[in-house]
Amino acid sequence: MERLLSTPWVESNSANSVIDVSKCCQSLDLYRQLVKGYIDQLDYGSAVYWADKLVSLSGDQENDVYLLAQCYYYSGQYQRGATFLTTQNFERSNLYFRCLTAKCLYSAKEYLKALDVLDLENKNVVPGRQIRQSGWKPQESLNPIKGQIYLLRGKVHEALMNRILAAQNFKEALHHDIYCFEAFQLLTKHHMLSRAEEIELFEVLPFEKDCLNSDVDFVKFLYSINIKKYSHVTMTLNPIQFATMRRNLDVLTGDAERLYYNSDFVQSYKICTKVINEDPLHIGCLPVYIACLVELKKVTELFKVSHKLVDTMPNTALGWYSVGSYYFVIGKHDVARRNLNKAMCLDPVFGPAWLLFGHSFAQEGEHDQAMAAYFKATQLMKGCHLPLLHVGMECGISNNPQLAMKFLQDAQSLAPKDPTVFHEMGVIKFQEKKYAEAQAHFMETLSMVELPHMRQFLKKWEPVYNNLGHVSRKLKRYNDAFIYHKKALLLKPANASTHAAIGLIHAITGKTDLAIEAFHKALSLQRDDAFSNTMLRYVIDKMVEESKDGECSLYLTKNEFSLVVSTRQFKFQNNYFQRRL
Hints:
With 581 residues, the protein is an all-alpha fold. It has 32 helices and 2 strands. The chain has helices spanning 2-25, 28-40, 44-58, 62-74, 78-87, 90-93, 95-107, 111-118, 145-159, 163-176, 181-189, 195-204, 207-210, 216-224, 249-261, 265-278, 286-295, 299-312, 317-329, 333-346, 351-363, 367-380, 386-397, 401-414, 419-431, 435-449, 462-474, 478-491, 496-508, 512-525, 530-545, 557-561, and strands at residues 124-126, 129-130. A two-stranded antiparallel ribbon has the order 1-2. A hairpin with a 2-residue loop joins strand 1 and strand 2 (129-130). The longest helix has 24 residues, at 2-25.
């Protein structure tokens, strides 16, 4: 009885199915709108389901195939999307399909396969047969697809550590699509170009030719705020017609970067705080914000920010970089390196993490490991002077002054107004016993650090005054040397080496009582100071002997050499962290 009832039910349902399919074929537009509606509502599961049925109903029409592949991409099914397109050779017939296929492979970290797809031409699938080219493109598509092809090719080359080809492709992307800002941002934020190269690129971009609706000035303004900011401290000048952009977060971030790179950390921090309060996860501002917190030693705030970033963005390099920055500031370098390793595993081309990785080794005196990390940062941040600066500093510590000077000169060519570069050049010249040149570099440094916006950081630059004192003593300008060391004491009264240097000047000028007092003060601050111990015994012996009533001349060049302090100024990008760090 049940079998007799079930059979006509199946037949009736089958007939209705044929009728339903016929109706569906007449309403494909309805299903396309349905899929796009689910995409707008971020319901990608439903979008994939109905897009798949749409492809079957339409007989693999190109716009429906492209829509389904997009749904796979949006839902994170990258391998499935790439396989779907390559199975029927869609990637060979059309640039839009080729670009989407490569994007799926790139997101799946199949970089070599993505590059193969991007480099496809009209190749034979089987001997004697070619895939017919299609001129199809999505409706209402204003952006040239070739710009996206070059952009994606550049990102693939960057992932494969080929920065030169990556930079070339990013430049081509901009020449084909002037609105492809991501290409310009990758060139600038990843420090692929020097400031001069960025300006040269900016001047040759086809703004007048490709900009829409005569918005040349607006697009130029937005691109200009992303160019490197080593040369001047002035804020971004918003043209009158763009006055409403004054509160734009990206424009404010550009001002913060400019102030940071010119060592005005307090003002940079204030602007970053304003941006972060409005948008706590502003990717462009966060590297500069973290760098300012490190420079200003705001440990508590850095702790809160770093752990918030790790909680909200655990799969990004920036989050773990911020945690590493916190542990670096509090002196736990081993823990800092563990967190920086996580950042570098997530993003191997994140230059600020490599730079901070080198700093952690340098702080512990591990110069070989520090040099390796700095050289890696140099490869990743070609347009940033900080890796070159720190490589030069490590070469100087390793007693290789000629190589150190070469790296410092390269850093100076990128950042001609960074006081740290001039100071380290002075230290190298002192090592080479070229005291007049060393003094010139130190005086140039002093002229920069005594600017109004730098005066609040004078304590950090105490070594400049001490080193000027050492150089003046070598040049037998003892009064000048004494004045510089006294200025250094005003900044750091408890510095034993400064008191020892003052004692040496008193001993040389025959002021034995004052020399003994200065050496006693140095030993009270640092009991194991070998130089002060030696000099104190020597001066006391001279007093006891009373063999001379005139000037007591002391020439201990090797010990004097140990008094020279090489200041180490740590910065992050960045950028970026721009920083970056």
